[in-house]
TrEMBL record:
It comes from the Bacteria. This is Putative anti-sigma-F factor NrsF. Signal peptide: none annotated. It comes from Paraburkholderia sediminicola. The chain crosses the membrane at residues 29-47, 59-82, 94-114, 134-153, 159-178, 190-211. The keyword Repeat does not apply. Keywords: Membrane, Transmembrane, Transmembrane helix.
Length: 213
């Protein structure tokens, strides 16, 4: 068989990929993650009663900006890794910068605190439950985002699964901020990060199985 005949045979029946598929799939999955996490937060935990007051403070918006910036970076990375052979690209610095900033703020808080106040600053009042609350709120987004990524033929399945889990958990953390009473960067730097890394680790484990196409 000649090369031209082989190419013709392989290309038979192939239809062009519809334009806008990536936008459509993430246009469905990301709102599902946001709505699902928010609805679960309201139903299971409830909105903090002093939200109208605390929303007037800069520290609340700084707390909200932390997972929101991570979600933006994770979205960039997830969209790229959903395509065959793509790299994370600019997703890495967008995800890394907020983590570095929060860790610098956390170190400053701990160093400046009195010795007896350092551990309470890190543990807060909810360290035992915070990561698992975020994990729960990430479930709708985890399912929806994995659905979106699988339909786009990723090839780096473990990494794609990890950033998909991080995207779901960072969105969940944004929703959780409207319930969580913790207002100290020393707390966020550990327990919010733990909550976001749990679904990321789960995604890395399940990615090769759930994202295979």
């Amino acid at each position: 068989m000649r090369t031209d005949d082989l190419v013709g045979l392989l290309s038979t029946g192939i239809a062009p990929v519809k334009s806008g598929t990536v936008a459509r799939r993430f246009g469905i999955s990301v709102p599902v993650a946001v709505i699902g996490a928010t609805a679960l937060m309201v139903a299971v935990f409830g909105i903090r009663p002093d939200l109208s007051t605390i929303a007037k403070t800069a520290i609340f918006w700084e707390k909200l900006a932390f997972p929101l910036c991570l979600a933006i970076g994770a979205l960039i990375a997830t969209v790229r890794l959903a395509r065959p052979g793509a790299k994370v690209g600019t997703g890495w610095p967008v995800m890394a910068v907020p983590v570095v900033i929060v860790w610098i703020a956390a170190i400053a808080v701990v160093i400046s605190a009195a010795p007896q106040d350092r551990l309470p600053a890190i543990l807060g009042h909810t360290w035992r439950t915070c990561p698992f609350n975020i994990l729960l709120l990430a479930v709708p987004g985890f399912i929806a985002i994995f659905w979106a990524v699988k339909g786009l033929a990723p090839t780096r399945l473990r990494l794609a699964g990890a950033v998909s889990g991080l995207l779901a958990s960072s969105i969940a953390t944004v929703a959780y901020c409207f319930h969580c009473p913790e207002m100290n960067p020393a707390f966020w730097s550990i327990w919010y990060m733990a909550g976001m890394l749990l679904p990321a680790a789960l995604g890395a484990v399940l990615g090769p199985k759930l994202l295979r196409w």
